């Protein structure tokens, strides 16, 4: 018990920000307001590397990249931020502006936001608490099932219900996880998509900000499934994922 | 007579064959080849009708064997008969280096012969091989830079051409692979154009790839354009497009005696120099390179509030349309804007049209100003920036009598396809200034590992438990000894459970006594491995006399009788008394256990 309390204490303490981190954040805000977007970006990235993987940091990094006219990176970070707060109005506005700049059909981008809103409707923390609770109930019911003959029927019914709920929770989590981790964005003004992981056969070219799903890596190339259903290999240096 | 003569001839030949020496040769049609260039390796045996390889020839992995063929020559010169048998291999080296081929061992009439060793040099450069009548053609056009090409003979020529040698960033350059032929061919393979990674590529398509009949060096050729692409390179530098290799079966020999054989032709590499744009760019320049025209219109310019007017901006010309996202505009006054961008339309492969339509809906009467921003582009032909000045429109808005209605009135425009209307925003919002919580706990990677681990643990433990309890345990051959050992433990556990149920008052005394019977029977069944115990005086003696002494059997009988009285005799029994009974039974069993 003591150990658990100590562990929880450290967990809480480790999550409380240090003053120096706050200073970095404030400095980044000032730099951004003064138009020093490159320096502001560096500071926000320092916080990201320190484990501040959350809405505000991703959002602000997206803003910095937008101001630097690196729209591919900007889309990457804005869409990461969307995962944490899918209903944030500022973010919606920024993404709309960005989609108007980089997409032939900005409405497709809006559809993308709507899809994300469905997928990320339940925030991660609620999802995880629900997962843990349902999981604990399953464990308890399994213990009851094997030890209390009289409660077997109830235990069986509850196990079935909670396994279903737990699996649904896990499914939503994995959906979110895939969306969070497996997206790739083109970050140069134009790049070619190849049929194979070499420069022999070009299928077509794509513009900055084009989004796809990361599939696999081979040498200097990454296989990406694009949202229009096509797929191909893109040079690693030209995408962020 | 004819038969005799033929027989004699065969005999003479046979004799001459025996009398002549067998000679083995190995040779190649080329001693030096370039990468991917096909050459012919021949193994010739004179004065023999054939041979087998003692060991199949093994070549370096970078040498591919495309085709093998056999032939035989026979001749009678001055009455002297000679013959030779030739095996030819068409080989294609894929890496540069010096390759030794041979000695190869041949089996002829049970004798082993060995060839010499030959050396083939493979270079990564194209070679000038006069033996093959190869020639380089260099043609300098007025507006095109013709590149070096290589031909295998005068019948087949391949060239890699670019419309410009030097271009500016994002200026279009057409790269084409041209094939000129005077004879038939059958394609084996073709290594396509390898274009720079950071170039925007547009495929220029014609009806087919046949470009007509042309005269080159005084000869007529059929001209085919194998590939034709337009590049827009977005970074400064020198870009080399590697040679294109075309392998095919072509016709060789003279017009009288011709044959087909594998051939390989390749172009020279092509270098395109990409220059920076001049630095005197106007403020309105946003990267458009080419030659453009812009047309604007605003119709109607007189309307009522809540009615709509369409601002149309049409950009047309040749250039990097893919980089032009918008031509900005400003609207002064209380006007709602709804935009729609149409796709780029292409005519004549290079000439394009891009159209924007913006629906303007004024909500207040008055004179409103609509300004389409200045558009500027770099024209590579004149090497200068061109400014298309801003265009100002005036929108005269009168008060609408139906102003109270919220319905939007739309003037039906020509081909406007605005279905869903969204307000166009031009800049992003403010950044977030609240210092965030360090979200270590709710991190996807952490939870991913945790969920997988939890499932793995749950599945493993449940499986092991079930496996142990039902599968391994029930099949255990020593189940009887296990039961014997744990009979007392199980008995105590179950009797205690009865005690708890009795205290809770959930079950009747009769039912509990029934269960006590079963527990006692289970104990003896487990303990002594008997099938069952009949709880009558005779039954107890018959079943347990082997294991228990008289005294214990009598005591047991006494309690069984007592319990029978509770069940069937109507003896009233309190829960306290039942607890006492349970303790006494426990005592008897403890006595049996010793």
How much beta of chain A, percentage-wise? 5-15%
Helicity range of chain A: 55-70%
Largest sheet of chain B: 7 strands, antiparallel
How does the overall form of chain B come out from the CA principal axes? flat
| Strand numbers in spatial order across the main sheet of chain A | 6-5-4-1-7
Mean pLDDT over the full residue set of chain A: 82
Span between termini of chain B: 125 Å
Please write the string of helix (H) and strand (E) elements of chain A. HHHHHHHHHEEEEEEE
Multimer state: heterodimer
How many individual helices of chain A? Answer: 9
Question: Which SSEs are present, and which pair or pack?
Answer:
The complex is a heterodimer of chains A (241) and B (594).
Chain A: H1 2-15, H2 19-33, H3 37-49, H4 55-67, H5 71-84, H6 89-102, H7 106-119, H8 124-147, H9 152-181, E1 183-186, E2 190-194, E3 202-207, E4 211-218, E5 221-226, E6 231-235, E7 239-240
Antiparallel strand pairs in A: 1-4, 1-7, 2-3, 4-5, 5-6
Helix pairs in contact in A: 2-3, 3-4, 4-5, 5-6, 6-7, 8-9
Chain B: H1 2-19, E1 23-28, E2 32-34, E3 39-46, E4 52-53, E5 63-77, E6 80-93, E7 97-101, E8 105-108, E9 111-114, E10 118-123, E11 136-137, E12 149-153, E13 156-162, E14 166-168, E15 172-181, E16 185-190, E17 199-203, E18 210-216, E19 219-233, E20 237-241, E21 245-253, E22 258-266, E23 270-275, E24 285-299, E25 302-304, E26 309-319, E27 329-332, E28 335-341, E29 345-347, E30 351-362, E31 366-372, E32 375-379, E33 384-388, E34 391-398, H2 444-474, H3 479-504, H4 509-528, H5 537-544, H6 550-567, H7 575-593
Parallel strand pairs in B: 2-10, 14-23, 24-32, 25-34
Antiparallel strand pairs in B: 1-3, 3-6, 4-8, 5-6, 7-10, 8-9, 11-12, 12-13, 13-15, 15-19, 16-21, 17-19, 18-19, 20-23, 21-22, 24-26, 26-30, 27-31, 28-30, 29-30, 31-34, 32-33
């Amino acid at each position: 018990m003591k150990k658990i309390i100590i562990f929880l204490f450290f967990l809480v303490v480790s999550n409380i920000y240090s003053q120096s981190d706050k200073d970095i954040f404030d400095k980044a805000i000032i730099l951004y307001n003064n138009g020093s977007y490159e320096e502001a970006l560096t500071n926000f990235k320092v916080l990201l590397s320190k484990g501040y993987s959350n809405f505000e940091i991703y959002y602000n990094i997206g803003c910095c990249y937008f101001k630097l006219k690196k729209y591919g990176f900007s889309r990457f970070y804005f869409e990461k931020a969307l995962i944490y707060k899918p209903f944030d109005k500022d973010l919606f506005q920024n993404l709309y502006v960005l989609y108007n700049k980089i997409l032939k059909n900005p409405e497709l981008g809006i559809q993308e936001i709507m899809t994300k809103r469905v997928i990320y409707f339940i925030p991660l923390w609620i999802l995880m608490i629900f997962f843990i609770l349902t999981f604990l109930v399953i464990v308890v019911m399994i213990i009851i099932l094997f030890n209390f003959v009289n409660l077997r029927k109830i235990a069986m019914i509850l196990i079935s219900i909670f396994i279903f709920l737990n699996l649904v929770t896990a499914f939503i989590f994995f959906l979110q996880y895939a969306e969070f981790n497996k997206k790739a964005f083109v970050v140069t003004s134009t790049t070619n998509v190849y049929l194979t992981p070499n420069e022999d056969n070009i299928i077509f070219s794509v513009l900055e900000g084009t989004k796809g799903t990361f599939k696999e890596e081979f040498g200097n190339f990454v296989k990406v499934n694009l949202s229009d259903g096509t797929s191909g290999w893109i040079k690693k240096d030209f995408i962020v994922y | 007579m004819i038969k005799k003569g033929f027989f004699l001839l065969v005999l003479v030949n046979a004799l001459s064959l025996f009398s002549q020496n067998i000679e083995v040769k190995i040779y190649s049609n080329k001693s030096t080849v370039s990468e991917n260039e096909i050459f012919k390796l021949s193994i010739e045996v004179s004065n023999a009708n054939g041979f087998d390889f003692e060991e199949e020839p093994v070549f370096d992995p970078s040498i591919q064997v495309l085709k093998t063929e056999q032939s035989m020559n026979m001749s009678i010169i001055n009455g002297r008969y000679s013959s030779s048998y030739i095996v030819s291999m068409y080989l294609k080296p894929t890496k540069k280096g010096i390759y030794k081929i041979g000695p190869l061992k041949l089996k002829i009439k049970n004798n082993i012969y060995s060839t010499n060793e030959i050396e083939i040099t493979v270079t990564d450069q194209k070679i000038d091989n006069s033996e093959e009548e190869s020639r380089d053609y260099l043609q300098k056009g007025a507006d095109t830079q013709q590149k070096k090409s290589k031909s295998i003979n005068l019948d087949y020529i391949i060239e890699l051409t670019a419309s410009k040698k030097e271009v500016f960033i994002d200026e279009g350059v057409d790269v084409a692979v041209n094939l000129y032929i005077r004879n038939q061919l059958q394609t084996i393979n073709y290594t396509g154009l390898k274009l720079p990674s950071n170039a925007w590529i547009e495929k220029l398509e014609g009806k087919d790839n046949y470009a007509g009949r042309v005269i080159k060096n005084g000869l007529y050729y059929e001209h085919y354009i194998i590939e034709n692409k337009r590049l827009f390179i977005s970074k400064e530098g020198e870009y080399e497009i590697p040679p294109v290799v075309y392998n095919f079966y072509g016709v060789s020999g003279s017009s009288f005696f011709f044959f087909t054989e594998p051939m390989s032709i390749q172009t020279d590499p092509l270098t395109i120099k990409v220059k920076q744009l001049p630095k005197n760019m106007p403020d309105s320049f946003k990267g458009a390179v080419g030659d453009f025209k812009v047309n604007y219109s605003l119709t109607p310019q007189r309307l009522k509030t809540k009615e709509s007017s369409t601002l149309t901006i049409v950009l047309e010309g040749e250039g990097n349309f893919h980089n032009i996202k918008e031509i900005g505009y400003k609207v002064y006054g209380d006007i709602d804007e709804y935009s729609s961008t149409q796709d780029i339309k292409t005519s004549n492969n290079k000439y394009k049209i891009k159209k924007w339509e913006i629906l303007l809906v004024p909500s207040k009467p008055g004179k409103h100003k609509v300004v389409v921003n200045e558009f500027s582009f770099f024209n590579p032909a004149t090497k200068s920036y061109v400014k298309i000045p801003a265009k100002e429109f005036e929108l005269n808005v009168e008060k609408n009598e139906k102003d109270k209605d919220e319905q939007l009135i739309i003037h039906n425009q020509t081909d406007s396809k605005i279905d869903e209307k969204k307000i166009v925003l031009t800049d992003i919002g403010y950044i977030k200034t609240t210092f965030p919580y360090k979200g270590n706990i709710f991190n996807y990677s952490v939870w991913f590992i945790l969920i997988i681990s939890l499932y793995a643990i749950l599945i493993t433990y449940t499986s092991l438990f079930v496996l142990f309890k039902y599968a391994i345990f029930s099949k255990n051959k020593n189940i009887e000894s296990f039961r014997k050992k744990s009979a007392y433990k199980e008995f105590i556990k179950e009797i205690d459970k009865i005690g708890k149920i009795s205290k809770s008052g959930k079950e009747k005394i009769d039912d509990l006594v029934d269960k006590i019977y079963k527990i006692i029977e289970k104990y003896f069944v487990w303990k002594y491995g008997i099938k069952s115990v009949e709880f009558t005086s005779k039954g107890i003696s018959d079943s347990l006399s082997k294991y228990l002494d008289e005294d214990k059997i009598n005591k047991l009988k006494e309690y069984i009788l007592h319990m029978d009285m509770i069940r069937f005799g109507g003896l009233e029994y309190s829960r306290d008394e039942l607890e006492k009974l349970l303790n006494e039974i426990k005592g008897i069993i403890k006595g049996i256990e010793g």
